[in-house]
Amino acid sequence: MDLDNLTQISKRDLEIIQLHQFQQPIFCCNVTALAYAFTALGHLTTVDEIFYVAQLPIASVLDDGMTLAETYDTCLTYIERKKLPLSIRVEHFDKPSMTLEAFMREVEAAVSDERDVHILNFNTRIAHENPSLEGGHFSLLADYNPDTQEITIADTNPKRYTRFWKCPIQRLYAACVDKDSASNRSRGMIVLRRQEANLADKGVVHPAEIALNKLHSNDV
């Protein structure tokens, strides 16, 4: 593995994880995003395992979906019960400090740091400018171009939205500011961060590559 290209391989385009292998029934994008994020950070995780470990009632997830806060609680529960070396924070975009400029700074820093993964909760109608879409959705930040101010999303439902898609960061920000009627709060993001030291400095294989190899070996 070429450690000089570690960022591009493990973070920038997120192609190290096969998204379609995580997709579950509709309205399960939140748990799918968590499984994808954990695996991208080197902790092989399936959607079913999150349901089992966090003891999630299936009906509450599939029928009504989960809010950003509920998804955060599920993520925190999973981390604690599995004793994963990960930190977690949640940001609702109705916080006065979460301005467009603050979001842009966060995104610019995130795409060059292989130690974290950003799960975004947004309104699909706004993000895709399509009034026929359902509304709330969870997917992951893949890349950002500061010159064009376009953000790339790694979608948890590639069959519906395509695996990667782009939109202006201002539009995605507006989609995250959108209020979730179930919680009466704005949507936002969950940030998972690996607590180990930078692996490239140690000259070791990135844990996401190990997780991916294990995933593929299980498929054989």
Please characterize this protein's 3D structure:
It is a single chain. With 220 residues, the chain is an alpha+beta fold. The chain has eleven helices and eight strands. The protein has helices at residues 6-12, 29-40, 47-54, 58-62, 68-82, 100-110, 124-127, 158-161, 169-177, 199-202, 207-219, and strands at 86-92, 116-123, 136-145, 150-154, 164-168, 179-180, 185-186, 188-194. The strands form two sheets. Strands 1-8-2-3-4-5 form a six-stranded antiparallel sheet, sandwiched between helices. Strand 3 and strand 4 (150-154) form a beta hairpin. The longest helix has 15 residues, at 68-82. The radius of gyration is 16 Å and the shape is globular. Mean pLDDT is 82; it is low at 1-13.
Q: Which helices and strands, and how do they pair?
A:
Blueprint: H1 6-12, H2 29-40, H3 47-54, H4 58-62, H5 68-82, E1 86-92, H6 100-110, E2 116-123, H7 124-127, E3 136-145, E4 150-154, H8 158-161, E5 164-168, H9 169-177, E6 179-180, E7 185-186, E8 188-194, H10 199-202, H11 207-219
> Spatial order of the strands in the main sheet?
1-8-2-3-4-5
**Structural class designation:** alpha+beta
What is the share of helical residues?
Answer: 40-55%
Mean pLDDT: 82
**Count, helices:** 11
Q: What general form does the structure show?
A: globular
Number of strands: 8
One letter per element, helices H and strands E, the order comes to HHHHHEHEHEEHEHEEEHH
Which segments are poorly predicted (pLDDT under 50) over 5 or more consecutive residues?
1-13
User: Rg to the nearest angstrom?
Assistant: 16 Å
**Strand coverage percent:** 15-25%
Through-space gap between termini: 22 Å
Biggest sheet details: 6 strands, antiparallel
